[in-house]
C-alpha cells in the first residue's frame, strides 16, 4: 500500500500517473485538501481516503510525503512510524532531518517529481535511488539516479525557475495587450508559441545553444531580442536567482 500525505498539485499528479492503466497500485490518501482528495477517490478505483494521517501510516508500506517543507515538523510530530519506506518531495529537507522526524524509518528517499508525472512523462531525480522509490517513479517516466545529496539539491534549486517561466509569458502577453491586442487573444497566442517550443523538445537530446541559434536568424528579431536581454543583464540575473535559491536551501537545512 502506498500512502500519500499531502495531496496538493504534485501529490495529485503522482496519484493520477500511478492510477492510469491496468497495473495501478493501491493508494491511500490523507484526508486534508478535501476537494482534490474526493475527486481522486471518485475517479480511480485503486484510491481511497484514510480516516487520519496516523491511520494512513499504519496501513502503508510506503509513505510519500508531499506537504510543504514549513509544515513537515507539525505534520510528522504526531505520527508514529515503523520499519517502512518514506519518500519525501520536500525541497531543502535533508535525509538527516527526515530521519529525526520519522524514527525508526531508515529507508528514506528524496525525490523531485515534476507535473509531467501525471502523464507518465516525468524525469525524477532520486537520492538515494533505491527501491521501492526507483520502481515507483520509473512507472511515471524515468529516473535520474543521484549519488550525492548536494548534487540533488542543485536539481531542486533549478525547479525554482518554473514559476518565472510563466511570469515571463505573462510579461510578453501584457506587452501585446498594452499595444492594442485583446488580453485573452494575447494570452492564447503566447501560450501557443511556447507550447510549440516545448513539444519540439520531445524525443531529442536538447542542446539549448543549438536550438537558440536555430531560432535566431542572423540579423533577425530573435537575435536582437537575445542581444538586448544580455545587455540588460537578464542572463546574469538567472544565475543570481539560482545562487540565492541554493543558499536559501542550504540555510533551511542548517536551520538558518
UniProtKB/TrEMBL annotation:
One of the protein's GO biological processes: L-proline biosynthetic process
MF GO annotations: pyrroline-5-carboxylate reductase activity
Gene3D superfamilies: NAD(P)-binding Rossmann-like Domain, ProC C-terminal domain-like
Keywords (A to Z) from UniProt: NADP, Oxidoreductase
Domain Pyrroline-5-carboxylate reductase catalytic N-terminal: 2-92
Residues that, per the record, bind NADPH: 53
UniProt family annotation: Belongs to the pyrroline-5-carboxylate reductase family.
Designated name of the protein: Pyrroline-5-carboxylate reductase
Natural source organism: Dyella monticola
Lineage of origin: Bacteria, Pseudomonadati, Pseudomonadota, Gammaproteobacteria, Lysobacterales
Amino acid at each position: 500500500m502506498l500512502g500519500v500525505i499531502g495531496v496538493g498539485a504534485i501529490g495529485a499528479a503522482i496519484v493520477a500517473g500511478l492510477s492510469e492503466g491496468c497495473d495501478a497500485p493501491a493508494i491511500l490518501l490523507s484526508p486534508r485538501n478535501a476537494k482534490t482528495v474526493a475527486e481522486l477517490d471518485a475517479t480511480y478505483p485503486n484510491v481511497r481516503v484514510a480516516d487520519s494521517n496516523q491511520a494512513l501510516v499504519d496501513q502503508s508500506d510506503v509513505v510519500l510525503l508531499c506537504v510543504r517543507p514549513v509544515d513537515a515538523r507539525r505534520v510528522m510530530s504526531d505520527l508514529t512510524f515503523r520499519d517502512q519506506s518514506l519518500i519525501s518531495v520536500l525541497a531543502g529537507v535533508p535525509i538527516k532531518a527526515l530521519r529525526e522526524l520519522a524514527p525508526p524509518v531508515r529507508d528514506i528517499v528524496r525525490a523531485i517529481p515534476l507535473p509531467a508525472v501525471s502523464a507518465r512523462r516525468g524525469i525524477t531525480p532520486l537520492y538515494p535511488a533505491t527501491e521501492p522509490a526507483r520502481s515507483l517513479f520509473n512507472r511515471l517516466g524515468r529516473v535520474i539516479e543521484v549519488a550525492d545529496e548536494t548534487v540533488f539539491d542543485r536539481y531542486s534549486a533549478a525547479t525554482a525557475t518554473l514559476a518565472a517561466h510563466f511570469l515571463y509569458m505573462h510579461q510578453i502577453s501584457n506587452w501585446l495587450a498594452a499595444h492594442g491586442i485583446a488580453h485573452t487573444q494575447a494570452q492564447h497566442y503566447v501560450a501557443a508559441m511556447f507550447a510549440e517550443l516545448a513539444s519540439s523538445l520531445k524525443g531529442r537530446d536538447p542542446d539549448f545553444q543549438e536550438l537558440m541559434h536555430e531560432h535566431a536568424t542572423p540579423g533577425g528579431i530573435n537575435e536582437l531580442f537575445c542581444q538586448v536581454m544580455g545587455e540588460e543583464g537578464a542572463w546574469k540575473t538567472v544565475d543570481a536567482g539560482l545562487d540565492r535559491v541554493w543558499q536559501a536551501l542550504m540555510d533551511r537545512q542548517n536551520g538558518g
